Amino acid sequence: MNALPRRVTLLQNATLPDGSTCDVRLDGDTVGAIGPAHSVPVEAGGDTLDLTGFLLLTAPADPHAHLDKALSWDAIDPPMGDLVSAILAWRAYAQTMTTESIVERARKAALLMLRQGTTAVRSHVDVLLGDEPLRGVRAILQVREELRDLMHIEIVALAGSDVPDADIEAAIDLGVDLVGGSPHLAIDPSADLQRLLRLAERKGVGVDIHTDENLTGALTLAEFAQSVRDWPTERNRSAGHCVRLGTLQQDDLAAVLDEVEASDVGIIANPITNLYLQGWEHPVSTPRGLTAARAVLDRGGIRFAAGADNVRDPFNPVGRSDALETASLLVIAGHLTLDEAYTAVSDGARAVMALPSAGVAVGARAELLAIRATNLSDAVANASADRYVIHAGNLVAQSTVTYDVALPSPARQPSLLQTR
């Protein structure tokens, strides 16, 4: 019988990334106290988790998901290919979807993310063409309501340049949080970008724009940043993908990042999807297709995050719905350190999403992942499925794995060895 979620009051003997062990008292949805292992008293009637052998981390947040598309690869059976072929396959399939079918996949995808430790998700959802353009929006709104006690879900209305303003505004009126789009794919990228920004201003919401998701195409990020320079601080703005940044020469890159930093635009890398979609036209010396993560981080003043983006749909046929997979790819393909990579999928992601600080700090939100590991290297490399997931002070997911592996044969005695 599933007894989750349940309120937890004390985490005992947890290992921190610096190697120390500690107890953590949770006061509702907040970290109330931290002390050396076995030093924090157990409250009468409280619920204690023994985390001996577990590494305690800030729970991951995913700032760029597509719950409406997730887990559709098998149903669509699309050809493998680049961004354009993925869009064409998706648009054809989208005409056949019902709200109920989207809900079923999206719910499953969100719970897979929760099981792996992600307690906050920002999902783009297509404003569809044709009849019932808000099918996807209604579906993700339903999933958000169903899971509201288990995880935080934000929704971005993802609108192509051919989607009418009225449909985007209707999505916001239903409860969507942000305006999104892909201006770099429009015939006139600047015009579409400005249309989306004006619409967001009109409705008083933030934006999360798919930006320059190509190796050689339009460069819109600098204009985006300049256009939101005078927006109020509380109106969130972020740019996803930003693949073109990784192709710019240093002087040109520095000029764009000057604009980004001055306007506090968050940058969201999506390594697994961009590594899959980009570079098909380059059979030799295939580019990595990532944003300029190192240059962004070296600035020190730009909010930087990473998301899984697409999971098992026409835009990416694989993916484990695990932030540790994203972190691993940032290390391998983006040459980030382990600390930088995990920060990008946890504290950095929360900063880009403008969520309160979380993790093992007094006063921080109790959004925590405990994973069986000795240190961060072990956690990212091996990604043990043994995990406890805590959202708002509640244990919302728990996985336990057992292994049975045959023992090796006893070593042959030296006296029995023959020289050949």
UniProtKB/TrEMBL annotation:
It holds the Pfam family Amidohydro_3. It comes from Subtercola boreus. InterPro entries: Amidohydro_3 (IPR013108), Metal-dep_hydrolase_composite (IPR011059), Metal_Hydrolase (IPR032466), Metallo-hydrolase_Enzymes (IPR052349). It comes from the Bacteria. Residues 169-396 form the Amidohydrolase domain. This is Cytosine deaminase. GO terms for molecular function: hydrolase activity, acting on carbon-nitrogen (but not peptide) bonds, in cyclic amidines.
